[in-house]
């Protein structure tokens, strides 16, 4: 995945993005120590909200994403995990 630098902040390209809603998406970086990042795009300005090591701490993903997006429900979280797991060769 390519990373572009804009205004001193690293931001992911459109590769490996999973959108949560119209403004927030998950970027998957399988080779990085923090291999899952949550980004927010508001009024054309992109910033990273949080990041985690999904490969080894995926059991905490539901709480992690719920703290960032409290309006998300468990079925939506499960759907996100089904999209994320193949990047790490995990069962869907």
Automatic annotation (TrEMBL):
Domain of life, per lineage: Bacteria
This protein's name: Uncharacterized protein
Organism: Lacticaseibacillus brantae DSM 23927
């Amino acid at each position: 995945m390519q990373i572009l630098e804009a205004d001193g902040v690293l931001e992911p390209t459109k590769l490996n993005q999973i959108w949560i809603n119209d403004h927030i998406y998950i970027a998957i970086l399988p080779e990085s120590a923090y291999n899952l990042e949550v980004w927010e795009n508001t009024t054309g300005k992109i910033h990273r909200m949080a990041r985690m090591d999904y490969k080894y701490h995926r059991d905490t993903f539901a709480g992690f994403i719920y703290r960032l997006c409290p309006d998300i429900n468990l079925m939506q979280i499960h759907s996100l995990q089904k999209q994320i797991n193949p990047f790490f060769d995990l069962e869907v």
